[in-house]
C-alpha cells in the first residue's frame, strides 16, 4: 500500500520570535503529519530560510545542514550581551574614548581578520552539546561554559552600511556573510567588537540562503493553518542539489533498496556518495565503490509498482 503522507522538502521564511521547533509544530499541523524536521536551527530573534523535511524528506536533513549559508546581519559595536545578541540586555559597555577611536578603516580591518578560514569559539548559549546537555541549558542553569574553538570558513564578510551613533554609545554595522556550516554569526559580532576593543553583539539576523535554497524560494507560514498548504519540493529535486546523481532502472532500484549492490558504468564519479534516481523518484544515497559498484547508504522506500 502506498504511503500517502506528505513526502518532500519545504523552504519557509521563519518569522521573528518563533523557535525553529515552533516552526516544525506549525508545519505538522499545516500538513497533517507528525514526521517533520528542520535543517539548521535559527534563533528566535532571527528570520529567514529554514529548510524542513517531511516524511522521507527528514532523511535528507543531515546533508542539507552541512551546506554553506548566507546571512544579512546588523552588528552593534559598543556593548555586549550574555547571549551575544539582542535576546538579552547589554551588560558590558565600551569606554567612550575607545568607541570614538573606531573608524571605517578599523572596522574593515577587523572584518578582514575574520574572513577566510578562522578558529571560532561558538557562543556559550549555542545548541552545542556539552556532556550530553545543550550548552544554552547549562548557561541558563547558572553554569560557566567554555566551548572549544572550531574551524569554520567565512568566504565573504561584506560591510553594507555603517551608522555612527557614538554619542548614544554605539555603532551599527550592516553586513552580509557567506559561511560554512557551523558558523555562528553572533560570534562574529562578539569577536569583531572584541578585536576593536569596544565589545559587540548582534541586533538583527536574517538567513537568506541555505545551499541551493534562497529566500525567494521560501513560503510564509500563514496564521490561518486552514489555508491550503503548498506543494513540497520533491526528494529527487532536492537531492540533486546536494550530490551528483545516477539514474537506474526499476530492477536496480529494487536491488539497492533490498541492500544489494548494483554495478553500473553510469556513475558520474569513481568514488564517494551519489544520489540514485529511478523515474524521478529518489531511491537512495549510495556509495560508489571500485568498479562502479553502488551500495546504498540511506534508502528511500518508493513504490516501484
From TrEMBL:
GO biological process terms held by the UniProt record: mRNA pseudouridine synthesis; tRNA pseudouridine synthesis
GO terms of molecular function: lyase activity; RNA binding; tRNA pseudouridine(55) synthase activity
Keyword Ion transport: no
Active site: 43
Enzyme nomenclature, EC number: 5.4.99.25
UniProt xrefs under Pfam families: TruB_C_2 (PF16198), TruB_N (PF01509)
InterPro entries the record matches: PsdUridine_synth_cat_dom_sf (IPR020103), PsdUridine_synth_N (IPR002501), tRNA_psdUridine_synth_TruB (IPR014780), TruB_C (IPR032819)
Domain Pseudouridine synthase II N-terminal intervals: 28-185
UniProt keywords, alphabetically: Isomerase, Lyase, tRNA processing
Catalytic activity: uridine(55) in tRNA = pseudouridine(55) in tRNA
UniProt entry tagged with the keyword Repeat: no
Residue span(s) of domain tRNA pseudouridylate synthase B C-terminal: 186-227
Family: Belongs to the pseudouridine synthase TruB family. Type 1 subfamily.
HAMAP family (UniProt xref): TruB_bact
Cited function: Responsible for synthesis of pseudouridine from uracil-55 in the psi GC loop of transfer RNAs.
Protein name (Swiss-Prot/TrEMBL): tRNA pseudouridine synthase B
Origin species: Brevibacterium aurantiacum
Lineage: Bacteria, Bacillati, Actinomycetota, Actinomycetes, Micrococcales
Gene (name only): truB
Amino acid at each position: 500500500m502506498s504511503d500517502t503522507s506528505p513526502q518532500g522538502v519545504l523552504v519557509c521564511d521563519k518569522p521573528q520570535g518563533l523557535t525553529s521547533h515552533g516552526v516544525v509544530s506549525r508545519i505538522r499541523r499545516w500538513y497533517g503529519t507528525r514526521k517533520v524536521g528542520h535543517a539548521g536551527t535559527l534563533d528566535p530573534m532571527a528570520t529567514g530560510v529554514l529548510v524542513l523535511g517531511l516524511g522521507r524528506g527528514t532523511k535528507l536533513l543531515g546533508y542539507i545542514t552541512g551546506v554553506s549559508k548566507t546571512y544579512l546581519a546588523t552588528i552593534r559595536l559598543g556593548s555586549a550581551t550574555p547571549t551575544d545578541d539582542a535576546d538579552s540586555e547589554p551588560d558590558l559597555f565600551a569606554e567612550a574614548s575607545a568607541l570614538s577611536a573606531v573608524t571605517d578603516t578599523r572596522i574593515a580591518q577587523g572584518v578582514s581578520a575574520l574572513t577566510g578560514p578562522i578558529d571560532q569559539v561558538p557562543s556559550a548559549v549555542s545548541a552545542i552539546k556539552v556532556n550530553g546537555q545543550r550548552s544554552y541549558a547549562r548557561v541558563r542553569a547558572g553554569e560557566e561554559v567554555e566551548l572549544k574553538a572550531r574551524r569554520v570558513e567565512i568566504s565573504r564578510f561584506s560591510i553594507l552600511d555603517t551608522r555612527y551613533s557614538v554619542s548614544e554609545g554605539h555603532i551599527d554595522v550592516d553586513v552580509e556573510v557567506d559561511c560554512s556550516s557551523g558558523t555562528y554569526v553572533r560570534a562574529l559580532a562578539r569577536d569583531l567588537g572584541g578585536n576593536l576593543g569596544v565589545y559587540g553583539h548582534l541586533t538583527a539576523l536574517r538567513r537568506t540562503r541555505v545551499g541551493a535554497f534562497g529566500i525567494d524560494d521560501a513560503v510564509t507560514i500563514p496564521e490561518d493553518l486552514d489555508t491550503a498548504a503548498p506543494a513540497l519540493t520533491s526528494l529527487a529535486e532536492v537531492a540533486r542539489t546536494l550530490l551528483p546523481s545516477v539514474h537506474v532502472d526499476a530492477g536496480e532500484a529494487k536491488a539497492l533498496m533490498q541492500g544489494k549492490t548494483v554495478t553500473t558504468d553510469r556513475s558520474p564519479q569513481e568514488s564517494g556518495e551519489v544520489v540514485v534516481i529511478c523515474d524521478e523518484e529518489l531511491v537512495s544515497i549510495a556509495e560508489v565503490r571500485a568498479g562502479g559498484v553502488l551500495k546504498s547508504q540511506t534508502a528511500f522506500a518508493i513504490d516501484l509498482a
